[in-house]
Amino acid sequence: MREAGSRLQEKGRTGAFLRERDPAASAVPPGTIHGTGEHAMRTENGFTLLELLVVLFLIMLLLGIAAVSLTNSLPSSKVNATARDIASTLKHARSLALIQGEEQVLSLDMDAKRYGIEGKAFRAIPEDIAVRIVDPLSGEIQSGTYRIVFRPMGGAEAGVIVVSNSKRTVRIEMDPVVGAVRLK
Known about the structure:
Blueprint: H1 2-11, H2 14-21, H3 23-26, E1 33-34, E2 41-42, H4 49-100, E3 104-109, E4 114-117, E5 122-124, E6 130-135, E7 139-141, E8 145-150, E9 156-157, E10 160-164, E11 169-174, E12 181-183
Antiparallel strand pairs: 1-2, 3-4, 3-8, 4-5, 6-7, 6-10, 8-9, 10-11, 11-12
C-alpha cells in the first residue's frame, strides 16, 4: 500500500486515492478544499438546475415589468418633447425679434403637421401628436396655418398652443405683453 501511495503522491492524487480506499476520509463537509496548489479540489461545484431556473424566472419577471412601464411612458414623453421643442422655437423667435429689432413670425401648419420661424427651417410634428390653438379672438383652431408674430419689443400676438395625444395634454401659454413662454 505504501508503494501505491507513493506513486499517487508523485502524481498529486493522494486525496483521491484516500477517498476511494478509506470511507472515513470521504465523509468531509461540503465546500471543504482537498489538496493544495493547482490540484486543490472543492467537493461542491456550480449551481443546481432549480437555482438557475429561479434566477432566470426573476430576471424575466423584472424585464417584463420594465417593458410595460417603459411602453406606457413613451407616448407622454413624446408629447412633452414636442411641447418643449415648440416652446423652444417660440423663445428663439422672441429672442431674434429682440436682438434684430424686427418682427419674427412663427408659423404653425396644423394640416402639414410642421412648425418653424418663417425664413428658417421647419420642423415636423409627429403623426400621433395633435396640435390645436385656443385663440382669444378666433376661438379654437384645429386646421390651417396659425401665425404667431413677435414684435421687436418682445410682445407676441398669440393664443394658447395645446399639444396632446391619447394619454397626455400640454399647454404652451404666452404672455401677450412680455412674450414669455410657459408650459403647463
